[in-house]
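Z., the sequence and structure:
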Amino acid sequence: MNNIHVKDVEITLNTKIFLAMLTFSGILIILGVISSYYLKGSLIALTCSWIIWITAIIIFNYLMVQRHRIVKDVKIEFSTEEEEEKVYTVMKIE
């Protein structure tokens, strides 16, 4: 019976898209903090403001994930009992 042992899994991310998501999310968080400073008198307005900013971040990140490929490729390193370790590219996105 051949047993396959997974030794390592490597996922390569598209750094441009990933950094764009982080940067835009950071900008929206900063804008949320600034708006909360000006809305600190009203708890309802402050809560609604944070809900709007968090929703904007979630929608933006969702659209980025749907429209762009964040994962470039996935490599799995495995070995069997008879063979030496091998590295295979399971999924490569161009």
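Helices lie at 15-38, 43-67. The longest helix spans residues 43-67.

Let me know what you think.
H.
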